[in-house]
Design brief:
This protein is of the alpha/beta class. The chain has 2 domains: about 120 residues, Response regulator (Rossmann fold), CATH 3.40.50.2300; about 90 residues, Arc Repressor Mutant, subunit A, CATH 1.10.10.10. The protein has 8 helices and 12 strands. The strands form 3 sheets. A 5-stranded parallel β-sheet has the order 2-1-3-4-5, with helices on both faces.
Length: about 220
């Protein structure tokens, strides 16, 4: 599976995250501060980083900014972890280039799901061709076909469909979709997702049935 680094100064949270990810089959290294994390980073790069915002010798936002400025870690998948009272720090982290976020307290299943989704998204973005049923997305030519016929999609419809297919089988909340497709998490904008899903299903015709609604949560591609 993946090599994952955790940077978290709270010992109990660090232990829970480590056990959960190891039980999911990942190789995990956990660090209580930024300095020990940087030392390990110089030895080997991880596939994903779970990063707390508040650390004793640094802060997560500064770390994200530094990682994005270095060529070898510019595209490292990063999940930020923050307390609900520190949302301004979370926003800064996302602005600096973090890929996703978790708000404390969070469940083990949420952590595992977010990690799985981000890893699949990262791998999926490297693939030239994505498939779901008879839907085919050509990432190189930015083209979508259904049953061998070209389907004209807007840029956001294309990105939405790609995000759903990359995370096939994973239930995605409207907030996750807003963050990853529209680069925002404003709850008031969640209807934007619903309207785009409706239009996308219509354009995909019979293959639109692969996009399922999960009541009170969001959507899943199956």
């Amino acid at each position: 599976m993946a090599l994952i680094y955790i940077v978290e100064d709270d010992e109990s949270i660090r232990e829970i995250e480590t056990i959960a990810l190891k039980n999911s089959g990942h190789e995990v290294y956990a660090f209580e501060n930024a300095s020990s994390f940087y030392r390990k980073l110089s030895d080997i790069l991880p596939d994903l980083l779970v990063l707390d915002v508040m650390l004793p010798d640094s802060d997560g936002n500064s770390i994200v900014k530094k990682l994005r400025s270095m060529a070898e870690t510019a595209k490292l998948p990063i999940i930020m972890v923050t307390a609900k009272t520190a949302e301004i720090d979370l926003i800064r982290g996302l602005d600096n280039g973090a890929d996703d976020y978790l708000k404390k307290p969070f469940s083990v299943m949420e952590l595992i799901t977010r990690v799985k989704a981000l890893l699949r998204r990262t791998e999926g973005e490297k693939e030239d061709i994505l498939r779901l049923g008879t839907i085919v997305i050509d990432n190189v030519r930015h083209k979508c076909e259904v049953d061998g016929e070209t389907v004209e999609l807007t840029y956001k419809e294309h990105e939405l469909l790609k995000f759903l297919i990359i995370n096939k089988g994973i239930v995605l909340s409207r907030d996750q979709i807003m963050l990853n497709v529209w680069d925002t998490e404003f709850e008031g904008e969640s209807r934007t997702v619903d309207m785009h899903i409706k239009t996308l299903r219509q354009k995909l015709k019979s293959q639109g049935e692969h996009i399922k609604t999960v009541r009170n949560v969001g959507y899943v591609a199956e």
